[in-house]
Design a protein that fits this description.
The protein is mostly helical. It has four helices and no strands.
Length: 73
């Protein structure tokens, strides 16, 4: 099961592919919402975090007319 999770973008390999905004989403989930450790998430959790960061990027662009200053990986 762990190999499947890793191949789908979860686990430690997925964590290495996160940009700074994704890591910020993880930080808020762990320290503000108390969602537990975010350093070895499932592929589903990684996808959810990516949706959150994409929404932040879109809303930033809608409000400012500029791209979010941290590039998406």
């Amino acid at each position: 099961m762990n190999n499947i999770n890793n191949s789908m973008g979860g686990g430690q390999r997925g964590e290495q592919n996160e940009d700074a905004l994704d890591k910020g989403v993880d930080f808020v989930q762990e320290h503000v919402f108390g969602a537990g450790k975010q350093d070895n998430e499932s592929a589903i959790e990684q996808a959810k975090d990516e949706q959150i960061s994409d929404t932040i990027r879109r809303q930033y662009k809608n409000m400012t007319g500029k791209e979010f200053p941290i590039a998406d990986k």
